[in-house]
Design a protein that fits this description.
With 242 residues, the chain is mainly beta. It has helices spanning 15-25, 29-32, 104-116, 121-124, and strands spanning 3-5, 37-45, 54-61, 65-72, 75-81, 86-90, 98-99, 126-129, 135-137, 140-148, 154-160, 166-175, 178-192, 195-205, 208-219. It is globular, with a radius of gyration of 18 Å.
Amino acid sequence: NEVEIVKDAPPGPSADEILNKYLRAVGGANRLATLASFIGKGTYEGYDSYHEKVPMEVYAKAPDQRSLIVHAQNGDTTTTFDGRQGWVAAYDKPVHLLPLLPGSELDGARLDTDLSFPSGIKQALRDWKTGFPVTSIDDKEVHVIQGTASGGSRIKLYFDSQTGFLIRQVRYTNTVVGTIPQQIDYSDYRDVDGVKMPFHWVVTWTDGQSTFQLNEVQPNAAIDSAKLAKPVEAVVKKAAAR
């Protein structure tokens, strides 16, 4: 997964050209406009599931609502963004329901939601920058662009130069101990009613990694509004009797 810098490459396309190619690759403006919501089901694997696969669900409604629920052995973890605010309800935190803080936390949740309905990706970030060296990821040449989120977070997006698909996102968070990156890698793009979606993504941070895999996606599904609202406090599951 390491990025290899390709030296002496000619100047790449503009941010607008890269984003336009991405929008065409995932279905085009007309097709993307027909996707109003979706429900996805699959599996999650990470440190909080003891690196075993557990059920996972995604609920998303255009233009800016998304909730992800992981059903781990010891309890559920729910991350929700309602278009303005976000929360995480997690059984393994000292406080079982926490708001996402302005800045990197809200910026990340908002961008994840925007990428669920990517027709507005150009407006999701500002101050687009190009001119990065041409690089490759897993032997695929990629174009890199950078934007700034509304809360000030710096975000780089990596697009496959051949397919146009987004294959990596890197977020940079400024902390008292320095800048900390979080990386999300996307793959396994599949057709969902004419829209291409990544069914596999891996989140990597400084000391861990989580893997998400969708098995099915139901487009334009009716979603209970409670799924996209502020979640209730997480509850620790009682150990099963033996």
